[in-house]
Amino acid sequence: KKGLSFDEKRTRMLELFHETEDFWQLKDIEKMAPKQKGITPQSVKEVLDSLVSDSLVICEKIGTSNYFWSFPSEAQALVNHSDLSEQKQTLEQSLEEAKAGKEDSNDRTQVNEAVKELEATVKALTSQMERYKDRDPAYLDSQRKDVDVAIAAANRWTDNIFTVRKYVQKSFNIDGASFDQQFGIKDDFDYI
Asked: Which intervals hold domain Leucine zipper with capping helix (predicted)?
């Protein structure tokens, strides 16, 4: 039967900590690791030391005893911390690159002032255009078309009223003045 490689021993030892999620002394680990994970008793301390040196297992001295532990959440937090550190470094480098060439100088200050002046001019001209909007030929033409449509609609309704009046006069033998009075139609009612 072939023995376990060092990496396999490390993986199994770490699994032991993650499965138990408890705190252990070295003597307890030396008893459990061979039984549960098949790690030889002679190599337990060496494997444990390697995991501690890689920060995968935490070792803390409490009183006169050393306690060892590792939780799955800590391993994930370590990976996340590493990823975030790399991301931070990349972002800081990008920020430095973006800042390059944008240091304050006389030319840059003058250009910024010119841009602000031009923006103020554009704003003033836009405001002035809004005041004269009602004199715009396109706007006036649009208003004329709207008036023509409104007149045509009013004349169409006037024609409809005259048609109804004529029908009522013929069918019910009512004179036009009575019809106008009943429906509130004024004497000057006519086409526009």
From this structure: 144-192
